Amino acid sequence: MDRTDPLSEASTSIDQPEWRELRRKKRKKFIILGLIFFAITLISALTLNVRWDRMGDLNTIINTILRFWPPDISTWPGFASPVLETVMMALLSTVIGMIISLPVIVMAARNINLPFNNIFYGLGRLIIVLSRSIHELVWALFFVTALGLGAFPGVLALSVRSIGFVSKMMAESIENISEKEVEAIEATGANRLQVWAFGIIPQIIPTLIGIFIFRWDVNLRASTILGVVGAGGIGYHLDLAIRTYNYSEASALILIILIMVGLGEIISSKLREKYVKESEGD
Amino acid sequence: MEDEHKPTWNKYDKKKQTKNLLLWAFVIGVFVWGASYLDFRFDRVLRARFPLSNFLGRMLPPDFRYIPGNIIYPLIETIQMAFLGTLLGIILAIPVTWFAAYNISPFKPISYYIGRFLTVFARSVHVFIWGMILVAILGFGPLPGVIALGIFSVGFLGKTWSEEIENIDWNQVEAIEATGANWIQVIFFGVIPQVIPAFVGLSIYRWDINLRASAVLGIVGAGGLGLELMFTINRLAYHRTAAVLLVIIIVVIFSEAFSAYIRGKFV
Amino acid sequence: MALLKIENLSKVYGTGDRALKNFDLKVKKGEFVSCIGPSGAGKSTMIRCINRLVEPDTGSKIYLEDENIVKLNNKELRRTRRKIGMIFQEFNLVERLTVMENLLSGRLGYTGTLKSILRVFSDTDEVNAYELLERVGMRDMVNKKATELSGGQRQRVGIARALMQEPKLLLADEPTSSLDPEIGRRIINLIRNITKERNNTVLVNIHDVDLALEYSDRVVGLREGEKIFDGSPSEVDQVVRDRIYRGYEENGQN
Fold it and tell me: Do B138 and B39 have their domain in common?
């Protein structure tokens, strides 16, 4: 919609206020929204049930903060076992989570057709939503209350929680595969299983590996705190340290957690670089 | 090749095959050993179905009558915590983002490193741990929850926002610079218009996550529905627990739908 | 009387590329000067040194009305940049702002910070904006976002934005290279006409030699960072073109 020579442009009347009017209206809308927002914030802040009585005065607060430093590193050796437990929990739950997800993926992927497809699709989606909406700590609480303390319920909790993410990602990946590649394999006269092995699976392996690595990283972070509700891992000791006012031990534990999570992140990004690229290069 | 073999095809050569095999053996070994270390046996899983179904039976049907009196207030508190926490996070994230975005960082490279450090530090400590620390310092109640959410959000927003800024079209910024505008004007006319949709989208996303976390922060003492959940569990009133859980799930689902809607309109 | 005087302009980039070598130029008030030359000749660097989007090497001198731009501090530089309008090859409009806001951003150097953020510009500014929009034929696109415009339309807005500064000097860095030849011609035509009407001084980088010859008062040729030619368009014959674009030496060597 480009014009011809602007010099021959007929001079239309210049409507001065036009832009200003718009500005004014926009500004008004902005101000009203802003005031509403401000009002909501003010009300929220003022009605917040701050337990002033349990807070103590500024001195106490500062003192408490200071007690976290320096972290008491001498306690580290004693925590080797919980650290191992935490790492193992993460690994196990990721693997188990992925295995359990298989049927869910089959149900939730739109291009995998089953008898009573709609019911299964709905069921699959429901499971995914449930798994994702309930925080891992709540899952852990659930399993601990039902089965007792320890890492066992913790692993179950994380596995169940992983189903949501894994299934959603894998289902999407399957829905996004290139039909052409599958068609090509089908055209050779391969049977259903072979089509899967040669046409479908190779396309989703990079995603699979990526999901595993990512979820392992997430589960590692989660397993550091599951212990708070008794589901195993180093979180239990952190909770204990805080409850017993052992703040320097607590900060030492936090340091361990930071290191664990940091290492986990480094390892997972290295692995992702290596494997996800490698498979694509095949 | 030296000797006249019939050519064979293998997906991987011998060396890679052995390496792969060893890798798999190692991984499975670790897995098996880990399972036994955690006392995670398959038969335990099977046997678990008894206490699990027992427990479920004690939870269902949920005690709906418990809701109006006892859950509405904690629910509001949960939403409050999430709202104020996200807001706090947004406010604190603004200066941190400014520092952490390399192209607009004011006192490079020091300010850049400070900004980056702050976002990484805030993010690495799980929001729960922040919650635990703050409850230890400030006592029970929603305030530590708000602050914990705020601090953790700074980590997330600081990282994502600064990455957005680092990816803008610098040409547009140059054009504004060329008119003789000062740096504040350059940021407001050149940088901000480019990143606003992403900023808003990320903030709303953060609010959604914060709401989920807020619902359970009460487990460590930070108020809201989580605290209520703990109460019902401690009293073995599992039907009520189910009711609280139901409310949490519904809130989360609503929040997700709501934030998806808002993001659709804005972005 | 020279409005712009460039002396000994040199620039070596951090990568070791020598972009400009002892470049001199004098531009008289009201002149329309085109700069031609092959890619990488240093045209873009030269233009960007004038408003210091690129920093010239020490020893370079750039005088705008007898003030050495190279020596200015940040505050003074901003003040001087107001007087220099720039049109870009990629238009460089702020995409998410409307046409009007893009135009008004040309007045940022003249408007207080707080006011500009609140989009409160003076009445005169707004009247001028409307007039300019009218003049470049974009009047009824006032409130459209820049993303909705075509290339030619964007460049018109870019021209208007630069002129909103009421600049003493107008720089244009290959304003037509991203446009279709037909539209590019109209844009150069527009630039020429508007600036003649307002008695502006213009320095343009241009790829299309014929366009340059048709519209300029004077032509400057650059090659590998050095000025090869400086004269009137009528003097640009094939020999001169070859010297600039193919690098034949003065004594006829290749």
Answer: no
Task: Please report how the helices B238-266 and B49-59 are oriented relative to each other, as an axis angle in degrees rounded to 10.
Answer: 80
Is residue C252 situated within a structural domain? no
pLDDT of A243 higher than 80? yes
**The CATH number of the domain where A213 resides is what?**
1.10.3720.10
Query: CATH no. for residue B260?
Result: 1.10.3720.10
| A contacts of B223 (beta carbons < 8 Å) | 49
Measured between alpha carbons, how far is B94 from B113 in angstroms, rounded to an integer?
16
CATH assignment of the domain containing C62? 3.40.50.300
Residue A239: list chain B partners with CB under 8 A: 132, 220
Please indicate, yes or no, whether residues B219 and B250 belong to a single structural domain of this protein: yes
pLDDT confidence of A162, banded at 50, 70, 90? very high
pLDDT digits (tens, 9 = 90+) for A245-262: 888 889 899 998 988 888
Question: Burial of B263 by CB count in 10 Å (0-12 exposed, 13-18 middle, 19+ buried)?
Answer: middle
pLDDT, tens only, B237-264: 888 888 888 888 888 888 888 888 887 7
SS3 B154: helix
Closest CA to C54 of C36, C66, C42: C42
Q: How many domains does chain C have?
A: 1
CB contact under 8 A, A84 and B141: no
Residue B94 lies in domain: 63-266
Nearest to C119 by CA among B179, B183, A27, A14: A27
Looking only at the bridges linking them, the beta strands covering C18-28 and C2-12 are antiparallel
* Domain extent at residue C110: 2-246
Measured in angstroms, the CA of B198 and the nearest CA of chain C are apart by 12
The residue of chain B nearest to residue A221, with distances taken between CA atoms, is: B126
ipTM value of the model?
0.85
Which partners does chain C have (≥3 C-beta pairs < 8 Å)?
A, B
